[in-house]
Amino acid sequence: MVDSKDLWAGLGSALAVIVGLITMFLNIVSIRLFINRIGAFLNPYMQITIHEYEDDGVERSEFFLAVEAYLSKYCANKVPRLKAELSNDKRRTHVSVDDEQETQDTFTDGVSGGGGATLQWYALTVYPSSQVIISRPGDEKRRLYRVSFHKKFRAAVLDSYLPNVFEKGRDVIAKNRQLRLYSNSAGWNTRGTDVMTCWSHVVFKHPATFDTLAMDPKVKEAIMDDLRAFKEGKDYYAKVGKAWKRGYLLFGPPGTGKSTMIAAMANFLEYDVYDLELTAVESNSVLRSLFIETTGKSIIVIEDIDRSVNITSTSKEDYGAKLTLSGMLNFIDGLWSACGGERIIVFTTNNKDKLDPALIRRGRMDRHIEMSYCRYEAFKMLANNYLHIEEHQFFELFGEIQQLLEEVDMSPADVAEHLLTKRKDTDACLKALVVALKNAKDDKDKAKAKEQVVEIHGETGGSPS
Ligand SMILES: Nc1ncnc2c1ncn2[C@@H]1O[C@H](COP(=O)(O)OP(=O)(O)OP(=O)(O)O)[C@@H](O)[C@H]1O
Ligand SMILES: [Mg+2]
Questions:
Q1: Which ligand approaches the C-alpha of residue 219 most closely?
Q2: How far is the CA of 445 from the centre of ligand 1 (A)?
């Protein structure tokens, strides 16, 4: 039997050993910390690491992607090894700085005392230790960027350089990405019930540009200037305290290029398009949710606003219950400020006069653009686009067409149709157009004569057709 004295003595010495080990461990740790501190104190450089994934390990870090884009654009020419990958949609190649590569960058903004600061960027890949269980594809390695710089630039790097890298990187991403066309037509959720509040998207690939848009060149130039000023106007809008948005009302008869103009705007600005189908929006609150889901650098389009929804000032103002004029007006101005900005909203209509003036007053719809019937200037552009011909090559036919276009209202869509029908035979195309214009002119003359007869004989009403 063990003596209780011996037992206590044994326990005591065991405790002493444990305490001794703990003390030794703590000493080692504190020595390490101490050495690290000395090392850090003596090392004039510091590092910042940007990891590929957010803390949740699922979402890729926006900052990482911006750094990647920034380095690819501004520093890739300095590294000997690049990496090429296919984009998510497998349609484009995407080049970035390869793993274990090092590159330099310099900057002057915020650096005191003149001269610039030089920074060293490293692209690294870390592999988890073999004990870690890999549960998700992509977990087997993680990429990171590390930037190293002199400690004296700490404030300038944090306050000026890195925000600038983020901003520029995002611009590069925006430039490289494919434009999207979103629409809110009814979708279905997993329970099979109708979902009206979501956007679905496809790649936006419309060939229209301002070069191919046939309209008065001066008006076109003014619109392009306006869009340019808007895109570059971030500081201006912030300075004057206005939400960074702009409204355009495109009005004109069918086939005059309103939808084509929206596509040209999107391609010009490199903005996504949100095609808002108002007939699928049942209430103000749904409209609000849809709007909040839109992203910056986008054009929100409501086509045929007069026909989409019967919204007039007299609509019942039942907020959230149904779509009302006040809901629409909130949508256009009140909500903008809550959503970050850089959005353009475009309404199109064939009947401007039918719209409630409150909806389209300046400030809401900043610019009213009339898309009109095809006149000579627009025709010359269409002839050049479709047939690659100039005025001097078909002088006589052009002259005849010019005169007829002054007298007859024909939409650019109809003119384009005639230029397309006999594409291989330019002469035949132009002659077919002359015939069509003459027929339209005859019809117009006949209608006018009929009107005069009605006036002279004092008849009222039209035919009962
Ligand atoms: N101004 C134009 N310049 C170049 N092409 C045009 C122009 N207007 C119309 N078109 C041609 O006609 C077709 C129809 O034009 P678009 O759909 O833009 O007309 P719209 O004004 O939107 O008509 P709607 O009022 O019926 O919606 C286009 O595909 C385009 O090829
Ligand atoms: Mg249209």
A1: 1
A2: 26
Say if CB 368 and CB 346 are below 8 A apart: no
Domain spans in the chain, listed from the N-terminal domain onward: 45-130+137-176, 182-370, 376-457
Which residues line the pocket of ligand 1, CB cutoff 6 A? Answer: 212-215, 254-260, 350, 371, 378, 412-413, 416
pTM attached to this predicted model: 0.71
For atom 13 of ligand 1, which residue has the closest CA?
413
User: How many Cβ atoms from other residues are within 10 Å of residue 130's Cβ?
Assistant: 5
- Counted residue by residue, the chain has a size of 465
Look up residue 57 and give its two tokens: 């390990």
465 residues of the chain, pLDDT tens digit each: 556 677 777 777 787 788 778 777 777 767 766 776 776 677 789 999 999 887 766 677 889 999 999 998 888 777 778 878 776 556 667 777 787 888 899 988 877 776 788 999 999 888 766 555 555 555 567 889 999 999 999 999 999 999 999 999 988 887 777 889 999 875 544 444 444 468 888 889 899 999 999 999 999 999 999 999 999 998 898 899 888 899 999 999 999 999 999 999 999 999 999 999 888 887 888 888 888 888 888 999 999 988 775 655 444 444 445 677 777 777 777 666 666 678 999 999 999 988 888 888 877 889 999 999 999 999 999 999 999 998 888 888 899 999 999 999 999 999 999 888 766 788 888 999 999 999 999 988 888 888 887 777 665 544 443
- Burial of 97-110, coded b for 16+ CB within 10 Å and e otherwise, reads beeebebebebeeb
Pocket test for ligand 1, best of 256, 261, 420 (most atoms within 8 A of CB): 256
Most informative mutation of 216, 220, 259 for ligand 1 (most atoms within 8 A of CB): 259
Q: Checking phi first, is residue 192 left (phi over 0); if not, alpha (psi -120 to 50) or beta? A: left
Give the CATH H-level superfamily of domain 182-370: P-loop containing nucleotide triphosphate hydrolases (3.40.50.300)
CA 426 / ligand 1 centre spacing (Å): 22
Protein residue closest via CA to atom 8 of ligand 1: 257
Closest residue by Cα to atom 14, ligand 1, is: 255
Distance CA 242, CA 230 (A): 12
Alpha-carbon span 269 to 232, nearest angstrom: 10
- How remote is the CA of residue 17 from the centroid of ligand 2, in Å? 86
